[in-house]
Automatic annotation (TrEMBL):
This is Uncharacterized protein. It comes from the Bacteria. It comes from Leyella stercorea DSM 18206. Pfam families: DUF6712. InterPro entries: DUF6712.
Length: 301
């Protein structure tokens, strides 16, 4: 069973000696739906789900935060927003995995946890709804921390930063913009895979990896002052990301609009967009601008 696997993975760890985001039942109770109560005289909820909490914190660290940044976050005071949201995520993710193994009953106040088999368990439907609400709580908090992490200790030097900065859309907002309201983190991973393909084509055929890298980094860090021509670079980011959004939704590359952008890059004065002008991609446009060949994958009638 999952429980045995989980415990064997962590059996050499004594959680009491580990610094954790959530270290005791009192802290946990602040972050778990207030309806979920253990019956008096039983193990506390913290003791029951401790290994799930460890696993959830590890997942949050490996996927989003990085060990370096997490070590610092654990030292923050309770009132720090980033610590608060990391705890929400950890508790929600731990409960999502623990719920199927807890004996949940439905009481007039919501869910309770009990070991007495004479009480009817909560229905499958209600459990499903609880799991969905835990996932939503987790994803809403993930959306928040991704806006805070660029300012957190050492985060921009991490692999996790690189994962999100690899496209022009480094936060979960893109999923909402595409019209989805549920399974936001799952959908983001799917959207990111599509964006990598789209951006690869846009940069090799049109905008150059050099310019796109610069725009992705400036956007992920929200630092546009790397260049004197802040306004022109920011506007270029907006134009290219709007094209990508359109491709994501419609599945077609609007070649005339793309060529229009390339021409405005070519004609920019002085050193503006030097990244593009000195790139191999620029050579494709050197003599006569873009030529649409029948055999090119970008050919449109």
């Amino acid at each position: 069973s999952m429980r045995i696997r989980t415990q064997s993975k962590f059996q050499s760890i004594n959680p009491k000696t580990m610094a954790m985001l959530i270290n005791d039942n009192d802290t946990l109770k602040k972050y778990v739906p207030n309806t979920l109560k253990a019956v008096a005289g039983e193990l506390s909820l913290f003791d029951k789900i401790q290994y799930h909490l460890l696993q959830a914190e590890q997942w949050l660290t490996d996927t989003f935060v990085s060990s370096d940044t997490m070590s610092r976050i654990r030292t923050y005071s309770d009132s720090t927003p980033l610590l608060h949201y990391c705890r929400i995520i950890t508790a929600a993710e731990a409960m999502r995995h623990a719920v199927p193994q807890l004996d949940l009953i439905l009481t007039p106040n919501g869910f309770g946890i009990v070991s007495n088999q004479n009480i009817a368990p909560a229905s499958k439907d209600r459990i499903e709804r609880l799991l969905l609400s835990l996932e939503k709580q987790r994803d809403d908090a993930l959306a928040v921390i991704l806006t805070m992490l660029p300012d957190a200790h050492h985060w921009t030097a991490s692999e996790q930063f690189n994962y999100f900065a690899a496209t022009m859309f480094p936060t979960l907002d893109i999923v909402h913009q595409l019209g989805f309201a549920d399974h936001i983190w799952l959908r983001y991973q799917d959207t990111r895979a599509k964006l990598l393909t789209i951006e690869h084509r846009l940069e090799t055929e049109f905008f150059s990896p050099e310019l796109m890298d610069m725009l992705r980094t400036a956007n992920a860090l929200n630092k546009w002052d790397m260049t004197l021509d802040t306004a022109q670079y920011k506007r270029m980011y907006q134009r290219i990301s709007a094209i990508e959004f359109s491709i994501l939704r419609i599945g077609e590359y609007p070649i005339p609009s793309i060529i229009d952008i390339v021409n405005s890059i070519r004609l920019a004065k002085g050193n503006v967009f030097a990244e593009w002008k000195n790139s191999d991609t620029a050579k494709l446009f050197q003599d006569h601008g873009y030529k649409n060949k029948k055999e090119s994958s970008g050919y449109f009638f």
